[in-house]
Amino acid sequence: MRSHFDEQLALLHREIIAMGALCERAIALSSKDLEEGKTERGGEVFAHVAKIKSQERDIEALCLRLLLQQQPVAKDLRAISAALKMVTDMERIGDNSGDIAEIVALGHITPVHDKLQIGEMASATVKMVTESIDAFVKNDVGSAKRVIAYDDVVDSHFDRIKRALIEVLRSCDDGEYALDLLMIAKYLERIGDHAVNIAGWVIFSITGKK
Amino acid sequence: MKKRIFRSLCFTAFGVFAACAALFFFVLYDYFGEVQQNRLQMQTELAAHALTREGKNYFEGLPRTAYRMTWIAPDGKVLFDDRFAAEKMDDHGDREEIKTALAVGEGESSRYSPTLMERYLYCAKRLPDGSVLRLSLAHSTVPALLLGLLPYLAVIAVVTFIFSLFLASRLTERAVAPLNELDLDDPLANDGCDELAPLLHRLDSQQRQIKGQQEKLAQKQKEFETVTENMSEGIVLLNKKGCILSINKAALRLLDTEPSCVGRHFSEVARGPQISALLANGEAALRDEKRIELPAGTFGLHLSPVVSGEELLGSVLLLLDVTEKEKAEQLRREFTANVSHELKTPLQTIAGAAELLAKGIVKEEDRKDFYLRIFEEARRMSRLVEDILRLAHLDEGANDMKREATDLLALAKEMAQALEQEAAEAQVSVSVSGERAVVLGVPQLLRSILFNLCDNAVKYNRRGGKVTVIVHDEEKSCTLIVADTGIGIPPQHRERIFERFYRVDKSRSKELGGTGLGLSIVKHAARAHNAVIDLKSTEGGGTTVRVVFPK
Fold first, then answer.
1. B263 inside 8 A of chain A by CB
2. Number of domain units in chain A
3. 8 Å CB contact between B307 and B287
4. Residue A197 maps to which CATH number?
5. If you measure CA to CA, which chain A residue comes closest to B265?
6. Does B256 touch chain A (CB under 8 A)?
7. Which of A89, A157, B22, B381 holds its CA 20 to 30 A away from the CA of A135?
8. Reported pTM
9. Pick from A20, A48, A51: which is nearest to B271 by CB?
10. What's the pLDDT tens digit per position in A49-79?
């Protein structure tokens, strides 16, 4: 009985890793498009986003089945409830990556435009997502805490870009581009927040403290 | 062991003890019975004499002994009894011994008294006056005797028990001692017990067998490890669920993980949609191949399932570095695209011009222009084809070309002259200086090195710029330097300008002419002479190419 349960927990762990990997890939691809001003990876991002959504449903179903059938306690209960919350954050990351890819696909953001170093913010965000998934994979409280601390970097990027865009809007005629950049920056900032949530759930599932 | 020895000892001791006791008991019982009987007869005889002589007075003052005396009248009435009052006793005439005594003069009998658990021996004698004297003696029965013996028996039993216990533990100790002292690592070195010899031989042969097999296994393991550890390719063995069974050094390095990952699922070590798909195929026992980007470059992941009979045992994952391959493939694709593009452009011009001429649309005065354009483009194409052929030839190795002693300075001067007109058009001055430097080489190739370098120096120069060609003759080498004051090469392009068809500024290639193969030819021609090319360039400040020919 217990071994079956353990097997299912391992399966849950693997499924979350796979889903996390998809999120990583989605945000990495859309940031790459963003940095290089290309639109060629959009299709792949959308395919990943669709897969992430279906995986979210699968993992939720698995979690609920485990809760009902095994009635877990203590650490197992924490792991499963954390998983249940984590997939929601992951799904949001995927969604936001898709949104970024959509804006990039419009094609009016090119590297020439990128005086604001939004690419830097994108790579900081990708780093956060990767590290939060790493923290989950390795069950590492330390790296989860680092992710939470790193959110400040992404937030400061967001503030910087916002202020710079205000200047752009005042002086320049290309308003749509500025708004698009603002949207992208906001999405990136949200993704950073979701990565922080994931890290928080990792800490919860290990220590029981939130 | 101890328990069993103890049990059998106890059993034997008690058995022997019981047998002896029974034997003695029954033999002695019978013997004593007989003795008592005789003594009773004798006593009766004596008492009868005394009674006959002394009459009733005999009984007076007679001490009470173990013998009970009863005097019975011939009619059966009890006249005297030394245990009970005679008047109260019932008629004794019907007693067996008395009946016999009255009849024959003497009688004996024995009766068992269940109430007293004793057997009584009776002996009666008829006196001359017709009365009968009877003596009786209690004779203990078997159970009574046994009861009497019980305390002694118990003491003996306890002693036997304790002795057996002691003996059992001693015996066990002594029997096991040689076994405990055996040196199991070297069974044959033990001496002493001959009884243990077969066991020791058996042990020895089994140990040899185990040792041999262990050595074989260790050897195999070592072979496997040596092979896998020193491979530059990563090898990972997975079980059927995708957990890592074994991983070699290269794979650890490539996947940036630690040996502790053994036993964990592969997706915890490396993750990504590609890897998920790969592992899913592995679980379905399907062969698969994927490419992933790792920090060390592009890697091909080859997964082949390990199947025994119908059952999937796991899979082997190979990580192959395909960075170079990928790069080469990309270069090849670019090359093909470039060649077709470069060949197509002049052909289109020629075809267009020719079509217009053929349809007679072109005015008479413009015709010459069209012919010229066709001629120009055809020449461009033939130059291109020549260059490609030359490169192809160099690719195959230019070893069969004839080498001669050639003076680089003379060649440089020749080139400067050939480029004079072009330089004048571009308003660039070309100067050649240095000393005579003779190298053993293929004149055609040396000429093409000089031509291409100088041609580029003129082409990518600014108006009023300079091209300086210097030839040095040194002890071990000859150096050719072509320096210009042109536009320079941006740092990110420097590595790639020797590639075929690579252009720094793709939009200007048509304008400047050239095939895009010049520097590639220089590179290959220099390689054919074992010469080393050194390129220094500052953006906007000119480029200096140094070619060092060994002597």
1. no
2. 1
3. no
4. 1.20.58.220
5. A14
6. no
7. A157
8. 0.54
9. A20
10. 998 999 999 999 999 988 888 888 888 888 8
